[in-house]
Design the sequence.
């Protein structure tokens, strides 16, 4: 897969993280809690795209 195609597939994930429902930009979690939340969202997103 070329680099553009990889980037194109990542863009929807970042949109979901920011404004597409998870709203991580306005999340008040910090440190380990924030990292755990991001990991959980990334796993959930990965499971739903396949």
Sequence:
């Amino acid at each position: 897969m070329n680099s553009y195609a990889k980037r194109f597939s990542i863009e929807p994930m970042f949109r979901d993280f920011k404004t597409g429902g998870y709203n991580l930009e306005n999340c008040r979690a910090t440190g380990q809690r924030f990292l755990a939340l991001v990991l959980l969202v990334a796993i959930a997103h990965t499971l739903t795209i396949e």
Notes: The mean pLDDT is 76. Residues 3-49 form one domain. The chain is about 70% helix and 0% strand. Residues 14 and 20 are 9 Å apart (CA to CA).
